[in-house]
Amino acid sequence: MLLNVAGVSRTFGGVYAVREVDIDVAYGETHAVIGPNGAGKSTLFSLIGGHLRASAGSISYAGARLDRVAPHRRARSGIAMVFQGARLFHGMTALENVMVGAHATTRAGALSATLRLPRHRREEREIRGWASEALARVGLADWADRPAEALPLGQQRALQVGRALCASPRLLLLDEPASGLRAAERAALAELIGELRAGGLTMMLVEHDVAFVTRLADRVTVLDLGRVIAQGTPQQIRTDPRVIAAYLGAEPAR
Q: At residue 130, what are phi and psi to the nearest 5 degrees?
């Protein structure tokens, strides 16, 4: 297993946001996390990414415990996260935005960058090349020199994915990547995620759209009030009575 979440809980003022959550994610798997609003999905992702610390339990990645590992060190180890909503660096081009994604893995350091030493210049050339490849991978090669904020929302979301890919992640966390997108933009994003899945990238995906999830995921975990209420294949989840009661409605999906 690439990722193991074991008995993880997180409280805020004595109230559980997630409670005793267990999830295993295999290498090459696309694992979705769904649930009603307030179920704890984004909190779980923040715990995996290191932006929050668990109150109890453990998180292991590639066999190593992550409990006290800082977010930037998790990024350097190969965990990349695309946050909910478009977070771009305004005043920078699409290519420059994607280049930012590689800096967590660079080696030259701040002094080298300040003095423009040869090692830094070599890394910048490498990063520009990686960023160009990442832009092409998400279908934005023609947008490289345009201001990032000028891109339509769908392309902004793809740009975020490209920025994460620039760091060559082993685990990609996508927190509601389709939120706010129109139908055509959602379809394009689903196609992109499907291509990444076919390429063997391990991904975790938080999303409200059940049809979007069941098209893309190998396995699904369902949270309700911070607890895992079901895990299984998309078809198993769609017909699970607990999921139907908590999230999908009165009747099983057909």
A: -60, -40
Kindly state the greatest CA–CA separation across the chain: 64
Asked if 213 and 176 touch (Cβ cutoff 8 Å), the reply is no
- Say yes or no: 37 and 61 in one domain: yes
11 closest CA partner among 41, 42, 43: 43
Amino acid (one-letter) located at 178: A
* Residue 59 shares a structural domain with residue 108: no
Beta strands in 98-193 (DSSP E): 171-175
Per-residue pLDDT of the chain (254 residues; tens, 9 = 90+): 999 999 999 999 989 999 999 999 999 999 999 988 889 999 999 999 999 999 999 999 999 999 889 998 999 999 999 987 667 888 899 999 999 888 665 554 443 444 455 666 788 888 899 999 999 999 999 999 999 999 998 899 899 999 999 989 999 999 988 888 888 888 888 999 999 999 999 999 998 777 888 889 999 999 999 999 999 999 999 889 988 887 655 544 44
**Which residue range is the domain that position 136 belongs to?**
84-169
**Residue 25: helix, strand or coil by DSSP?**
strand
Say which DSSP state 147 is in: B
Question: Cα(73)–Cα(3) distance, rounded to whole angstroms?
Answer: 16
Residue 141 DSSP code:
G
In whole angstroms, what is the distance from residue 161 CA to residue 177 CA? Answer: 9
Are 162 and 133 a contacting pair, CB within 8 Å? no
Last residue of a domain, one of 133, 154, 169: 169
Residues 128 and 187 in one domain: no
Predicted TM-score (pTM) of this structure: 0.86
